[in-house]
Task: structure prediction
Amino acid sequence: MAREAPHNSMRVAGRLANAFALDLVKLGGFGRDVVDALLLAAISQANVAQITRSPELQRTYATLDQPPPDELRRPVSISAVANSLRIPFETARRRIAVLIELGVVKTMPRGVIIPTGPVSSPFYRIMAEAHYKLVRDLYFRLRGIGLLEDLPRPNGPPFDPENPPVRLVIRLSSDYLLRLAEPISLHVGDLVSGLIMMQVVQANTEHLPDTEGGDADGDWSAEAFVPDHLRKPVRVASISERLGIPQETVRRHLTRLVQEDRCDRVGDGYLLTSRHFARPPFIQFLVDNQSHLHRLYSGLADFSVLSEWEREILALRGAA
Result:
């Protein structure tokens, strides 16, 4: 169980996690949009759930050169995928049908799987290596703000730095991504609006340093969050480009979010302010996010991933 961090560190961690989740979603769609990327993540994680639960299988299928065979991938129904992401069944069915036509998803008697072929392609390997680097970079940024100080010591053999456990890291971090996505649809109302809101948050705050988390000794009141004048409004066109969602769709969802007082229209841009962040659902997100991050990196520590990352950093510093 993670010790509760100072509130300003939890705010920065929430900001970093938001950007990290968006980066993962944009990477994972095989060139499709962010909704398809989350559908693929949900399908994949359901397919390999038994591997994620087994330390032995995790190690066996840890590296890019060792993808799990199709016979180990358990099919998942489209309705289960739709329910897990809280999206309409017809939306999931229509989108997955396109992914089947493209050969990314395969129909089985009891549902669908992502077969070995697409996740062994050169395109996937490039994406997977970028995904691995994002998880590694987030670890060191979180350490830099004082999180993750109480992780368990590694209890397994180290991995070969020349052949890192990229697939293992992707499985554990994709579980984290889906846990992060779950409350978005629940509290915002639908997945697309949630992704758009996440992108607004990132654009509003991506220029802020990791040292800027609001009042270190403050409570969860609006006054304790990062002051609104430090946030930068974002335009519809920028959100559309970053998410791969048509501008009219973005504008329609933002109009609803403004009407529901979930964000503000500021000139020709949009902004989430400190009063939005100080509401109970978002505060709960920050608290839960710390636990989710601790779970992710505890899992990586158990497989000696973190100790190898630390060794690599020390080696680089020594060489400098």
